[in-house]
């Protein structure tokens, strides 16, 4: 099973590299991705340590940062709302 997962991972990586070089995307997309990643982490950090969200703490992990990267600031509001409603703060 591990061999199958490793094979799929390797094939996916090779196809991704092929697409990046075939479309001549260059390394500009890495800059944009890095900026979104950093800004997402900063947004969650601001919510956690300024007390804007009534004693809620959103952990900085790949899942929460990915949500904020995808949805932007409404993603932060979504995470705060879920934390308050489902987990009770």
Automatic annotation (TrEMBL):
Keywords: Membrane, Transmembrane, Transmembrane helix
Highest taxon of source: Bacteria
Transmembrane segments: 32-53, 65-86
Keyword Membrane among UniProt keywords: yes
Alphabetized InterPro entries for the sequence: BofA (IPR010001)
Pfam families given in the database record: BofA
Protein name from the UniProt record: Pro-sigmaK processing inhibitor BofA
Organism annotation: Paenibacillus solani
Lineage: Bacteria, Bacillati, Bacillota, Bacilli, Bacillales
């Amino acid at each position: 099973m591990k061999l199958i997962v490793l094979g799929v991972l390797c094939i996916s990586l090779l196809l991704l590299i092929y697409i990046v070089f075939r479309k001549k995307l260059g390394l500009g997309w890495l800059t944009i991705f890095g900026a979104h990643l950093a800004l997402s982490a900063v947004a969650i950090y601001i919510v956690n340590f300024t007390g804007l969200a009534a004693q809620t703490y959103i952990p900085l992990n790949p899942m929460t940062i990915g949500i904020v990267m995808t949805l932007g600031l409404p993603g932060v509001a979504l995470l705060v709302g879920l934390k308050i409603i489902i987990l009770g703060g």
